Each structure stands twice: as structure tokens, then as C-alpha cells.
Amino acid sequence: MTRFASVPLETTQVSLLSAVRDAENTRAWSRFYCLYATMVGHFVRRLGLPNADADDVTQEVMVLVHKSLQDGVYDPAKGRFRKWLYGIARNRALAALRARRRRTRAQWVPREGGANLLDQLEDPGRDEAARQVWQQEWRYALLEEALQHVQAGVGQNAFKAFTLYAIQRRPVQHVADQLGISPSSVYVYKGRVLAAVREWVGRFQDD
């Protein structure tokens, strides 16, 4: 499940961004892409873009971001990377939503509240809903990345117990019976994995 278990990983967002600036560091770019492309893709879909348009926008955003990082366009002194990336993703999504609305005219009905979000996106002072969606997707992306990163460190039994109990919502006795451990051990393992996840997330975000 861990994507790059065989090689050292950049442990903070700053170190990952620095590594991505090296055009020859394909491993860093792969990890960067896995984290941020998934996040951007979910974000633009939740703004109402269908899959085909969302895929196109995601690719446009990632290509632009990659080039910008390598060319030094992003300046950490002017703000956090996530805020800068949000601006790019928001503007590209807005352009795609406008184009789609023009193509389909009044017949287009966006998905999952997309109309309200589009109205808010068109007014930079009223896009709080989109920012909240962005923050949610960032938390989801971080959690997925953290789980993949800590799996080896917490041990197979602990991670399996956590997955069954905390993610799949299996009853604690069922998890205990399946793994041949006590119910109290399931709670201990859950706490161990959560502690490792919190530690990893805190370190990665320490920029």
C-alpha cells in the first residue's frame, strides 16, 4: 500500500516542494502528483465539473504548477503553497465552469450545488464555500498520505486492526476475533495508528 517504501521520503511539505524543483527528481514529482492531483481532482468535481472536464482541469493545473515550481514562480515568502495552489485550481475550475455553461446555455444544471458555488466563485469576495471544500479535500489527501506513510512503522497487525475498526467500521469483537487478539488490543492499535498519523501530519504541515 505504501507508494515509496523502498526509498527515503521528504518528510515535510517544504522539503517535498524543494525536491520537485529538481527536474530530474521523478520520484519526488510522482509523490507530489499523487498527493496534489487527487486533491485538485476531487475539488473541481465538487465544484460541479463532470469527470472529463475535471480530468482536463486537473492536468492543466498540475502542469502549470510543476513548471511554476521549477521556474521559481511560487514564492514561499508571499504565502502558503496550499493558498497559492487553491488560486490556480479555483481560477481554472471557474474558467471551465463558465465554458461549460456557455456550451450548454440555460439547459445545464451543475451537480451537487455547483450553481451556487459557481456564483460564489465569480465573486472573489464570496467564495468561502469553495475554500471550505478545498480545506476538506486537503484533510482527506493528508489523511490518505499519512496512512500510507505510517503503515510500515506501526506494524501489520496494528494497521489491519485500525483499518477494520476505524475505517471499515467493523464491530470491535469482530475485529478481535478475525485477528486473534483481544478487544482491548484493537483500541490500543487504533490509538497507536492515530498517534502516528497525527505526528506525521503535524510534521508534514510544519512549513
Key descriptive features of the protein:
207 residues, mainly alpha, Rna Polymerase Sigma Factor, Chain: A, 2 domains, 9 helices, 73% helix, globular, disordered N terminus
Topology diagram in text:
Blueprint: H1 13-20, H2 26-46, H3 51-71, H4 81-104, H5 114-122, H6 128-154, H7 156-167, H8 172-179, H9 183-204
What does this protein structure show overall?
The chain is mainly α and 207 residues long. The longest helix is centred in the C-terminal third of the chain and has 27 residues. It folds into two domains: 141 residues, Rna Polymerase Sigma Factor, Chain: A (Orthogonal Bundle), CATH 1.10.1740.10; 53 residues. The chain is built from nine helices and no strands.
Overview in brief:
It is built from nine helices and no strands. The chain is mainly alpha-helical and 207 residues long. The two termini are 27 Å apart.
The global form is: globular
Order of helices and strands: HHHHHHHHH
Largest sheet: none
Helix content: over 70%
Beta fraction: under 5%
Ranges with pLDDT <50 over ≥5 residues?
Answer: 1-9
CATH topology of the largest domain: the name is Rna Polymerase Sigma Factor, Chain: A
The tally of strands reads 0
Q: Give the second-level CATH assignment, the architecture of the largest domain.
A: Orthogonal Bundle
Rg measurement, Å: 20 Å
